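Human: We require from you a standard protein entry with sequence in single-letter code and fold as tokens, and nothing else.

Assistant:
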Amino acid sequence: MNRLPEALGWSLLLTLLLETAFFFLCGKRDRKDLCLLWLLNGMTNPPVVLFYSLASAVSLNRTAAAALLEAAAIAAEGWCYRRYGRTVRRPYLFSIAANLFSYGVGWMLGRIG
């Protein structure tokens, strides 16, 4: 837990890079939607990483904790994309796909390193 600030920073940076790439891979180009993506990830990623670290520290099931935390982030982001997104036609599907993409790539990078 002593490396938590570093983990928070790297996780947010990697998430922003990956989900920005995902945004463009999906053919999105709207600047306001891109800013919304950055804002939402800035608001959801740090609490997810923090609560995951706390769950790990108290020996909770890490898989269940990750699934619950990611589901909460997906729900919050999907709602915001639905309410404020300009070009996101299926906001919850977009949120699920973006989070799966960034989580999956992050997981694979963690396995390599």
